[in-house]
Every structure is written in structure tokens, then in C-alpha cells.
Amino acid sequence: MNFATELFLVSTAVIIAIVLGSQLIAGVLSSDSLKGDE
Amino acid sequence: MNNVVALVLLYNLVVIGGIGFYLRWMERHSHSTIDMALGGRSSGVAMMSVTLAITYLGSAHVYGLMEMSFILGAVALWFSFAHTILMCVICLGTGPWIRRMGVSTIPELLGMLFGQRIRLICACVASMVVFGLVTLETQTLGIGISAMSDWPLGWSAVLGAMIGTAYVYFGGIKQTMWVNLVNAVVMYASIFIAAIYLTFALPGGWDAVTDYYVSNGTEFKLSVFGEPTLLASFSLAAIFSVVFSQSVNQQGMQACMSAENEKVIRKSLWIAAPVNGLFGVFPVLCGLAAATIPEFAELGPKLAGATLVVKLLPTWLVVLVQAGFIGALLSTFAMSALAPATIFAKDIIGSSKDEPLTPEREKSIIQSAIVIIGVIAGFMTFFLQPNVVFAITWLFAWLVPFFFIIVAGLFWKRSARAAFNVIMCCWVVNMVWSFAPQVKGALGLGFLENPHVVSLVALLSVIFFNVIAKDAKEPLFAKGTSGTLTEAAS
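ok -> C-alpha cells follow
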């Protein structure tokens, strides 16, 4: 695997980790007042 | 005119003109008036997410990342990751909150929270700050066009302002969203093909790039985690300045306000985060590769990466890559021009009238404001080209207190006096930090940039002034949201 592919895959992993982490934090913080009226 | 410039201009003419005239034709056929500011609040996930992602892909991503990676290495990608965190904060926090309030501008929200005086102060300052950003985007458009054509920067900026104005003039946010969607496809296809092409075009391929850094003892430059101290200082600084200053910025929020509902905004994260975050990989690869090849390295960090793209790729691919890059810059220009035009129409003209503006009148005011903003931005940039990074840092810091007072007003307390004091403290500190550098030197805080120190002041002052506030009302999202919202709206 070359360096460019490696950098792309690591970046993808970091971005997925950030998104999943933020979903987790949002889930923990969510309450009736934060959830809204979807 | 060389072929690359001619083809890039032709591409923009066809896409922007085509979509603009299509929307006009639709408007005539349906006998309706285009909602320039919010597109009838009907944006779905695809439009919303791509617009949000591309609005925050500006010159710093395109040319700044090439320069930063040349100097610092792959750790520069944390600038992109900071924007991924920003996408999360917007899609899961500020975006849905603002959509739920049903407002059209950030000053309008501040008015609901803290009254008309705060609304007007913030409208005047925010529209001027965003106008400042428009002039900087004009300059970077000029740099992009000038790099392709060798035309003088001033005239290139004027041309950039003209194309940028056309990007948003005919159909407002709806036109911008459609053009963004087309540009995103072109941009990603081109950088994906270019990255593969570079594997064969680079002397020695990517393995030679790796070998260069390993043999020089700078292997850490190949990792996004770099060295611990570099990682901590660079990534934290990037996250602070990006998240606090942009998470309630009118340009980004306008996309959220145009969404069909809150659910659309939350879902958009799954597209906006990778579309925005992964873009940075290509410029970082170019910067890293350029630093290893003497022919490009001797040009210095600013020009090395951009020159590598032009010299090593075939003309057709250079056209596609440049069209994508210019598209990213134009989308930021378009949303930045639309934002102050919307604030002007709704918060400055609209709020001073007893009756709401008719859709036709509002459209006409927004279109006129967009043209005036484009003309002044082009005219100013023709004569004045300040340092983009310093100017952006200074401008962003003006917006930082809005994030803190909005969060406080929605979830903790609503005190107009506290909000006013927080805003004034932050703006005074921002001015002192920029125009009296001896003060930060005397305090031993010279290492803090404007957004960092203003974030700190905003956090501390919002706690202090709200704790001592005696006139505070209950927050809008405290309990039984609807009752409080109705009261605030009235």
C-alpha cells in the first residue's frame, strides 16, 4: 500500500471516529429540551 | 488567454449560467417569486449537506493546506479535521437549534433571545464582518485565476468577483446549492483521478516521497499525528479558532435555515463531514510531494504545491482540478455575499418596517445588495490586498461571542445586559490584540491568536455576567419549549 492510500485511509478513519464520537456525545447530552420536535 | 483559463471560464459560464436561467424559467412558469435567502425552506439532505460542506471549503483548504503541509507535514490535515468537528457541531447542535427557531438570520435569533438593540448591533457588525470575508474570498479567487492566467491580481480579482456574483444573483441560495452539487462532483472526480495520476507522474512515485522523509529523519511529517507537541499545539489551535468562530456563522447557518426540517440537518452530517474533511487529503499530498522535488521545493511553500499540479498533470486534468478548486472558492464567495445581503434585507430594512417585506421586494433588495457587495468587493480588492490569514483570523474573532451568548440564551439564562457586556468585552479584546500588540506581549500571552483569546474571554465573561445578572429571563429551550418560544417570538 503506498503512502497516499495510507494517508487517505487514516484520514477516513479519523473522520469516522469524529462523527461517531460526536453522535455519541449528542446522544448522551440529548434530553427533551435538546431533541426538538421532528 | 491560455487554454486552461478559457476552459475553466467556459465551464463556469455553462454551469452557473445554465442553472441560473433554468431557475428563472421555472420562476416564470410557476408564477412564483424565488426565495433568495432560504429557497422556500425545502432543501433535502443532498443539497443541504453538499452546500454546508463546500461553503466551508475556501482558500485556506485549497492553497493554505498545500503551504502548511509543505512546512509542517501531514499534521496539517488537522485543519481539515477541525472542520469535520465543525460539521458535527453544526449538524447536531447549532443547525437544528436555529432551524427549530424558524429564524432567517443570526441577528434575528439574537433579537428573539435578547431584544431589538442586540439584534441591530449584531446585524451591523456581522454584516460588515461577513463583507470583510467576501473581500478576502475575492482576493483568493483573484490569486487562483491569476495563477492560471498570469494576469495581474487586481484584474483577476475583479473577474472573480463578477463570476462569484453571478453564482448567486439569479436564484439565491437555491442556485448556489445546485451549482455546488455540480461542482462537488467535478471537484471530487478530478482530485481522485489526479491523486492516482500523480502516482505515475511523480519521479519515483509515492515511494520516493516516503524515502525522502525517512532518509532525512523527518518521517513524522508523513503521519497525521506528527510529533506530540506539534500535534497538540496545531490541532488545538485549529479546532478552537474554527469551531467557536464559525458554528453560528450566517453563511453556514443559512444552509441549515433552508433545510426542510431538523432531521435533514442531522442526517446531512453523514455526507457533509466526509465531503468536507477528505478534501484536504489531496492538497496535503501535493504539498508533501512538492517539498521532496527540488524543481518545486525551490519555489517555496506558497507556490510549490500549486506548481506541481500544473506541471505534472495533463492539461485536461489541470482544467478539471482548477475548475473544482475555483468552484470551491466561488461557493464560499457566493454564500458570503448572500449572508450580508440577507441580513441587510431582513434585519436592517425589514425589521425597521411595520409590515413585512413582500417576497418580490425582498428578492429585489437581496439581488441589489449582492451586486453592490460584488462591485465594492471587486473594487476594493483591485487596490488593496491584505494578508489573508491575518485578516481572516481578525474577522473570525468578531463572531466568537455570538456562539457563547446564543448557547447561554438557549439553555441557561437570557439577559440582554449580560449579552451586551460579553459582546463588548470580546470586541474590545479583539481590537487590543490586533492594534496594541504590546499589551499581549506585556501579559506574556503573545502565543495566543485573536480567536483563542476571544474564546477564552467569551467563556469567562458569559459565566460572570450571567451569574451576576438580575434581569435574566428563562432560557428558550428550558422546559415546555413551545411556550417560551412563543413568548420570545412576540
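Chain B has a mean pLDDT of 86.
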